[in-house]
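Most newcomers find our protein records easier to grasp once they have seen one. Read left to right, the backbone structure tokens trace the chain's path through space. Once this layout is familiar, the rest of the handout is easier to follow. The record below serves as our worked example for the rest of this section:


***
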Amino acid sequence: MNVHHLELFYHVARNGGVSAAARAMPYGIQQPAISSQILQLEDTLGVTLYQRRPFQLTKEGQMLFDFIAPFFSGMSEMADRLRGGGESRLRIAAAEVVQRDYLPELLARMRRRVKGFHFTLTHGRQHEIEAMLAAQEIDVGLSTLMDRTAANMEARELLRLPMVLLVPKQSGLTKAAQIFEKDRIDLPLVTLDSKDVLSRSFQAALRQRGVDWLPSLEVGSLDLVVRYVAEGFGAGLALRHPRVELPAGVKVLPLDDFPPLSFGVMWTGRLSPLGEAFLAEATALASELKE
């Protein structure tokens, strides 16, 4: 028997059906894939393990579940014991601006809340975080949320961040309309790479207005966007983050009629008590930032 097929059957039996199992799985997998692999398990065994509608284990399915349940139900506890940290270690992924401006305070709160709290941290944007969650490489991710989350991914919005343009103070520009009204915009645009959610959202909004303004400089972080603007290399696309101060030589042009970007927490399956605590602290911090 395929051990992965047995694991899927355990979750189906435990949750009372394929749909519920897909929502509760500790990693991302779609319902058709679960159903297909359960059918393979039944073919291998030569028996039907459960009735589909309404869901009910057959005699053979109950026997198999009773046999495998002690093993699979103890997996999380064994993983914690092997890590040596019990329920005190959280694996986090976040974008660089979050790591710099918000995570230190959030992690300090977690240390006060959870005795012995420790964590690992890696960089990622939405699609990268979703891939890491699906591979069970992280427990939670913090990211802008433009794209629809993948199947079995959960997300909670924490903040909505407005888009802004950054220009050198000496530029003489006072509003973004002065740029958009030009027949041909010759001011260089500094942005994150074209695949980034912020860049794609901005370009979509420009197209709706009939404005053509493609990036001249694509850089690797919002810090670099600010740096290049401060040095006079063009106008930069950024997000207005609470509590983030800009250099004295940079001016903000609001983009009030552009859609804000949603920022939030992502996870898959059921959050552990530690993950729930992290989500609660992140929500509380976000509420304070809105004030």
